Amino acid sequence: MALSRLHTWIAGEVLTASDLNAEFNNIIDNLSFALSGTIVDGTAAAPGLGFGSDTDTGIFRPGANRFGIAAGGVQVFEGSAYVSGVNFVLVAPGQAGQPALLTATGSDTNVSLTLRGKGTGYVRASNFVFEDFAATQSPTITGRAYWQSTEGSLHISAGTLMARVPALTGVQTGDLIVATNSALVSGATTFGRLGAGLTGSLLTVNSGPRVEWLPATLASGYLVATAANSIGWGSVRTRLPFVDVVGIGLGTTSFLGAWVAASETTVYAQHLINFYGTMRNLYVMVQSAPGAGQDYKFTLRVNQASVFSTVTIAGATDTRGQNVTDAAAVKPGDIITLQCTASTTATNTSYINAVVELDTP
What is the value of pTM for the model shown? Predict the structure, then answer.
């Protein structure tokens, strides 16, 4: 009801009781309306409570038990009732240097705040920062993520602590993140950056949790264990020795191992392989040449089968031989031996020394 005059008075007019009552009743009705706060529903384009100089900005009622706020004729906020609701959202300004506050509050002791998108929509935050972990908070709430300032990492939980994401500088493509937690408690994890090693590098563990790449004789290939506390990236080349310090009987066939010649089926003449790799480059040296018209023949064998072409040392001056063209693959469990056959009247050399190179893998 708009506040307006009911009667226009003129000079000399008689004031009647009915006219005066109607005029004052009009004033009282309009004051009651203003004091009661009741307004028309309105719309976003024409709010029920607006501003005289900005009529499309204000408060309106979009539906039962709901109120909306419009700005420029567009709805920007809506509040809604919830059955038996006791908790709500508090919006408060921040002091100088402090953030503005949007927090959950209410009659419950602990009140969570849910931000939910519509349908398949999601919540997007710009310049988002996780809160720091407090001792009074549970680190194992399902779906929780929080910042652990003690160890400088983001924790993600799903019933139990599932992941730690450290804040490290200088991380590059191909780097690995190394973590250690000897105390096995939250907040005690330390992190490091493991840079990708160049071709020909060896990963080794030094004192404590520190790891580093060291130069090594490596070629590009796979990740392999090379020794205790060491991992090689690439193929690691090593050498298997075959030695005999007694001598080979004339006209006989023997098998060389790491120290003496023996039967091929005895452990003294065997190298046991415990990884995948490739053998190549067989080198043999004897102390004495076989003699004119005589020879020593050496053949590399895997699981009692020859895999290399024979290396022959022959004549009165020859004491060395090699096979740098053949290659043979090996696998864990394979037995490697070196077969040596001396001609019937060859000089009895007092020692034989041979090596074959093994690339792993």
Answer: 0.41
